[in-house]
Specification:
Length: 380
């Protein structure tokens, strides 16, 4: 099982300690680092900035949203960064959801599968550089043929020769059809909120896509599945679960509208419809702490590895026998060695000591936050 490091979303600014964590991950042998974008920071700029301070680790966009840039712009960004990094780029792509696509990018959301297929075809045409890039559309017609155009557009070929014609493309997908599409046309799949209970379904959906995979694509044996999975080595399961609950509440409650939230759909498929309804209702009402508290520990344990290192090792076997090839974790730099030891068979004694150190450090951080909040309230 390979390891990746996820930087996560920005808040007020760049995540504190991100560069240190990325360089630590590279030193510890992590395979990849992943950046995110929603409607704040973009995925490519931080990857270039932090990637310039590394030499080996692969650089993945996890994920670059289709609507944030045209297919040719995404292809240009990837081939440019691939040159600058010496061939280390993984282009992770995803359709996002209607709230972001229509609310932030001002574009229609319908037919995400068809748009994704067309988008990836254009990106690959740019990298192949065999002929001027063309597309019949209907989503990304090249050249533009709209009635409001000048009529002067012509097919063009990239002026830069890509370092690699086949930069890996991983597709972020949730749901049976999107998962099958990843196996059909992409080089990897980026699932999220995937549970141990859903591993067999995931294999089935991937097999449906592999059955349609073109002969000129990389063999299915090379297909990668990079799963963002919370891993919290901690002596107390409930305390560890408390660190994951806000993440689940955010996605299930806030990443999409009521009735149109792919992450809510994902936990519904796990049998948590009533729980999902409660979490979403509280979150949309602005009661975020209550929404997080409503996340059951059982649900956390289905989509995360939490608790004592020996418990995590026992549960890891099921993941190792699954379709997952890379676990993408997110943690402070000081916790990465412990996570590596737990997941890759390092010293269990050292992992147990690391879990205790992690518990101590997180308690101190929580105490400092509480102290700052108390001081702030006193000033008010």
């Amino acid at each position: 099982m390979k390891l990746g490091y996820g930087v996560g979303y920005w808040k007020q600014g760049p995540p504190a300690g991100a560069l240190r964590a990325i360089r630590t991950a590279e030193r510890l042998g992590f395979d990849s680092v992943w950046t995110a974008e929603a409607y704040g920071s973009d995925a490519f700029t931080p990857l270039a900035w932090w990637g310039s301070r590394t030499s080996r680790i692969q650089l993945g966009t996890g994920i670059a949203q289709l609507s944030a840039r045209t297919p040719t712009a995404a292809a240009m960004a990837a081939l440019t960064l691939d040159h600058l990094s010496g061939g280390r780029v993984i282009l992770g792509l995803g359709a996002s959801g209607p709230q972001v696509v229509e609310g932030w990018y001002g574009q229609p959301y319908p037919k995400p599968l068809a748009r994704t297929r067309e988008y990836i075809d254009i990106v690959r045409q740019v990298w192949a550089r065999e002929a001027p890039v063309t597309s019949d559309g209907p989503h990304y017609a090249l050249p533009y043929r709209g009635a409001d155009g000048s009529g002067l557009g012509k097919p063009l070929k990239a002026t830069v020769h890509p370092l690699r014609r086949d930069i890996p493309i991983y597709l972020a997908a949730s749901g049976p059809k999107n998962t099958a599409l990843a196996a059909e046309i992409a080089d990897g799949w980026l699932p999220f909120l995937l549970s141990r209970k859903g591993l067999q379904d995931a294999r089935t959906h991937l097999e449906e896509g592999f059955a349609l995979r073109a002969a000129d694509r990389a063999p299915r044996e090379h297909f990668e599945v990079a799963l963002q999975l919370p891993v919290i080595p901690h002596p107390d399961v409930e305390t560890a679960a408390d660190m994951v609950r806000p993440l689940i509440a955010l996605y299930v409650g806030g990443m999409g509208a009521k009735g149109a939230n792919f992450y809510r759909d994902a936990i519904d498929r796990l049998g948590y419809e009533e729980v999902g309804e409660t979490i979403q209702g509280l979150y949309l009402a602005g009661r975020k702490a209550e929404a997080a508290a409503a996340v059951p520990t059982k649900l956390v344990e289905e989509i995360a590895l939490i608790g004592r290192p020996e418990k995590i090792r026992d549960e890891l076997a099921e993941w190792e026998e699954s379709v997952v090839t890379t676990m993408v974790v997110q943690a402070p730099a000081f916790a990465l060695r412990t996570i590596r030891d737990v997941l890759q068979g390092g010293s269990l004694t050292r992992a147990k000591l690391g879990a205790l150190a992690f518990a101590y450090a997180t308690r101190r951080q929580a105490a400092r936050r509480e102290s700052r909040q108390t001081a702030s309230h006193a000033r008010v």
